[in-house]
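To illustrate the input format used throughout this study, we show a single complete record. The first block contains the structure-token representation of the backbone; no residue identities are included at this stage. The design step must infer an amino acid for every position from geometry alone.
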């Protein structure tokens, strides 16, 4: 008999959370801590969404999205998770750029970037200060029509080397381009510049297992392998429950951590919304996806320190189309040393490239396998210059593509970073359309990435708490 992954689940909860990405997990934890009964439903066999990991025989553990996040994670984890989780967050100090225009290593914070821009790129100190101050002051309520391209033109006209330094890591971090609103750039860039790039020591498995323990201690009912097929709405437009694995479970409020477009158009259904809202939802553009190549070195075999994050490119200037192309010319390498997982003797390398879903979606099985093999081979060729002898040192190599992300996270087109900016408005207005229905998860560029997702989970759980509290008294 098939196992019942909803065994002993109640028929009604105060809140149901669909999806265990960082936003879903954080909302679940906060709402359970506030005394609400919470059911968390995840279709995958593992929690974490994109913040996840996989194991391969030989004792290899690969992190999917643990490349770097801003310092704000420490405060958010301390406040909304545990001190222990916050204490495992450590800085990555070797951020490296290698491209036809420059070669440098930086701690990726304001002081070091100021030094580099003045000394290496010959920019006037007052221009650098003006740029940083402008970026720092940007917020959600600013002019949304000014693009990142216009922001750079204002401060660094004609300097595609400077644009590359300032933009390449952010494109990598959230898929944004020069045509996206400048405020999205300003907010994310300034978050990183405040103190640099951070990681979670112990690996994503350690983080998510600690989060799981904390949620269980707070009473969250956690269920994996539970695919929500439908969100149920009453005729007077209030959320009433879900259908999950063929069973109906009721709720007073619901937070969807699934992609915003699938939440509205697939899980609820457009007939339950205002026409104009449906049109707005349909017009939301998804963010791009990505490919990764995972390389494990033989146990105990390592490499000389070559940085933590390396932005490699063979292309001149900053060119998003080239970054997304299947004809790869830009790669970001994450080098993982044994300290990543204290007690381990393993060195791992993950190469990431932003990618277009359409380039991978329609390949036949043979073409798909051949393209993945080619990606692995060209990545090893490229890596040889940083890790000599990599082919002899490597013991396991495999690739993931936009199709992999679509399969595991159910994000439309495998979008790695949710949607473009307009998705945020649609996400925020969801409860105005259907009472008790909320969305928390990568959306609108600024609410994506580990920090964006956690913080959006915090914001939304506070709104859900307010919605539920009068009903409880
Ligand atoms: C390759 C890659 C590298 C990245 N690197 C970084 C990085 O270095 N730093 C950084 O800050 N960010 C990084 N990111 C982005 C970051 O991982 C994500 O923005 C963040 O983890 C997303 O969290 P989320 O809450 O939006 O949920 P997601 O991670 O998108 O999870 C959503 C969850 O909902 C579940 N779900 C969806 N539909 C259903 C359904 N119908 N029923 C049940 N469950 C459902 C999915 O299975 C999934 O678990 C990376 C992303 C990728 C893909």
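Output of the design step:
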């Amino acid at each position: 008999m098939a196992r019942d992954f909803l065994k002993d689940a109640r028929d009604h909860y105060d809140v149901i959370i669909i999806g265990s990405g960082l936003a879903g997990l954080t909302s679940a934890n906060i709402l359970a801590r506030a005394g609400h009964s919470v059911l968390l439903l995840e279709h995958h066999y593992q929690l974490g969404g994109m913040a996840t990991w996989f194991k391969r025989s030989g004792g290899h553990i690969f992190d999917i999205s643990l490349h770097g996040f801003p310092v704000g994670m420490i405060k958010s984890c301390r406040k909304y998770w545990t001190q222990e989780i916050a204490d495992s967050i450590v800085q990555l100090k070797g951020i490296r750029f290698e491209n036809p225009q420059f070669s440098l290593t930086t701690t990726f914070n304001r002081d070091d970037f100021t030094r580099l821009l003045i000394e290496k790129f010959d920019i006037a100190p007052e221009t650098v200060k003006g740029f940083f101050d402008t970026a720092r002051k940007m917020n959600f309520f600013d002019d949304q029509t000014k693009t990142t391209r216009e922001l750079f033109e204002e401060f660094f006209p004609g300097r595609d080397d400077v644009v590359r330094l300032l933009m390449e890591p952010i494109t990598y971090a959230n898929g944004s381009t020069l045509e996206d609103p400048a405020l999205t750039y300003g907010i994310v860039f300034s978050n990183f510049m405040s103190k640099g790039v951070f990681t979670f020591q112990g690996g994503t498995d350690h983080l998510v297992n600690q989060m799981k323990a904390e949620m269980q201690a707070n009473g969250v009912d956690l269920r994996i392998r539970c695919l929500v097929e439908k969100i149920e709405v009453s005729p007077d437009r209030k959320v009433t429950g879900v259908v999950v694995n063929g069973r109906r479970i009721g709720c007073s409020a619901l937070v969807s951590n699934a992609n915003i477009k699938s939440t509205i158009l697939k899980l609820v259904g457009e007939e339950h919304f205002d026409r104009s809202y449906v049109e707005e939802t349909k017009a939301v553009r998804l963010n791009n996806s990505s490919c990764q190549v995972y390389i494990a070195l033989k146990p105990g075999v390592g490499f000389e320190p070559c940085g933590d994050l390396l932005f490699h490119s063979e292309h001149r200037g900053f060119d998003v189309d080239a970054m997304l192309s299947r004809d790869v010319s830009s790669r970001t390498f994450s080098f993982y040393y044994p300290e990543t997982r204290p007690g381990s003797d393993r060195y791992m390398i993950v190469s990431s490239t932003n990618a277009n879903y359409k380039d991978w979606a329609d390949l036949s099985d043979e073409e798909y396998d051949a393209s993945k093999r080619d990606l692995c081979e060209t990545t090893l060729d490229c890596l040889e210059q940083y890790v000599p002898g990599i082919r002899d040192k490597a013991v396991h190599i495999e690739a993931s593509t936009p199709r992999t992300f679509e399969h595991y996270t159910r994000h439309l087109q495998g979008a790695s970073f949710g949607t473009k900016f307009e998705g945020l408005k649609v996400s925020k207005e969801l409860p105005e359309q259907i009472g008790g229905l909320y969305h928390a998860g990568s959306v609108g560029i600024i609410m994506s990435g580990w920090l964006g997702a956690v913080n959006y989970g915090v914001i939304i759980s506070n709104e859900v708490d307010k919605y539920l509290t009068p009903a409880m008294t």
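Structural context for interpreting the output: Residues 18-24, 41-44, 49-51, 64-65, 67-69, 227-228, 257-258, 290, 292, 352, 405, 409-411, 416-417, 441-442, 448-450, 453 surround flavin-adenine dinucleotide (CB under 6 Å). Residues 323 and 330 are 6 Å apart (CA to CA).
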